[in-house]
Protein: Two component regulator propeller
Organism: Pedobacter soli
Amino acid sequence: MRKTIYIIALCLFSTLLKAQSLYPEKFEDCKLSEFCLDCGTPQAQPPKTVFQNILRGVGESKLTRLKGTIEMQILVDQQGKPCLLSIDNKTNLNSAELGIRQSVNTTENWSPAMEGTKKQNSSVSLIMEFEGGKFRAKRRVFNFTSQSNMKAGGTPERKGSERAALSENWKVFTQGSSELPWDMSRAVATDLKGDVWIGTDNGIVKISGSKWQHFNSRNTIISATQYNKAQTESVRDMAVDQKNNKWFVIGYDVYRYDNRSWTKFDSLNSPINWARKIVVDPKGNVLFTSWDGIARFEGGKWKLINKKNSKLPSDRVLGVFVDSRDRTWIGTFEGNAVIEKGKTTALNDKSSPLSKAYISKMWEDKKGNLWFSLYNEKGDAAGMYILSSDGKWERLWKDEPTMFASNSINDFIVDEEKNTLWLSQNNVGIIKYEIGGKKTEIYTTENSSVPSVNIEQITKDKEGAIWAATFAGIIKTELK
């Protein structure tokens, strides 16, 4: 989970405006009477220091506490001078406290928009998403003509395996080669009937055999993006429960599809407030992590698990898992805990890896062994661990203790039929680990057809193929 900036073009409409503010919080500093929305060829371009200036204004102490999204409308005049006109602040701290206006207005000059040889006054929108002391940044580009696809390939920050040592071939599904509506994808899951579901940054796909079915803002209650009603909000995570309901984190809200109708859960009808990850427990209850604790949906009712009512180390929850013994394991950014029979125990035994890194995901195999992916970008404790049913710890890749410090684990699954672990590593690729033979294969953009270094959720289909959602399409192993 590194501080990585993604500058992504989100295509919308464009028009000439007369000092019009796009967002609810307005500022009076800007003097331009007329400008256009991200016009020009080329369009106005920010200096490389723009985000660093904003982060400097926020400060390290506030950055660790900051959560949510800020969208800024910045006017750039013909000399390239920036001025913050309006802002939509959906974080837990107010704009004045963050110093956004001063940071933006004191940034060095941009390159102004151009129409032929004439400089133009233009409006540019930047989006910054904050969580856990990290941020992502996007540029919202207003485009007159077409809706373009989004993708991000990238160069791996770790060398992959030699091509000759790789045992798998990948089939890649993109907007151009399949019915995938958008290349940038974050979620994939297999339901109880064996159908594969894909969540992209512009719609959901159900693949049943050779049939592709699409769900989006035009044929469901799923929200469209704020500025382009033809584009659907991004799917960030998904899971399938024991009743074959599909659950999705879309934008900031949660949606459930029961194979007939859709239901939306947000802050008005649930404790959901910017849900992050979805976990289904053995009893069919559905849990959602967030920076406000854990929201659990049980028997049609909601329950909140947080620092106040359950003595969690922190409300900023990274991972949660309920094992077959009904123990709830919780990873936060300030430590781990387990809840058993209503009692919360902090996991701070110095002999355990759980005292040194934070639970991001867990898995329980058929033998009762618990698999952990642990996150900590400091030190060398991050990585994959197994807690056997008799209480003994084993660390995978123990000879490479810093393997996951800078490049964390995004997701993993254990394929028990083939005795194989699959995991996605941030800014690297996808890793296959043969458990019995302790053989590692690292697939990247440089040694395979894997199209992106940004790989999120992984699933296994009913035929045994491995699927993964990437920022440049969906990949699937070709069965031999």
In short: DSSP finds five helices and 37 strands in the chain.
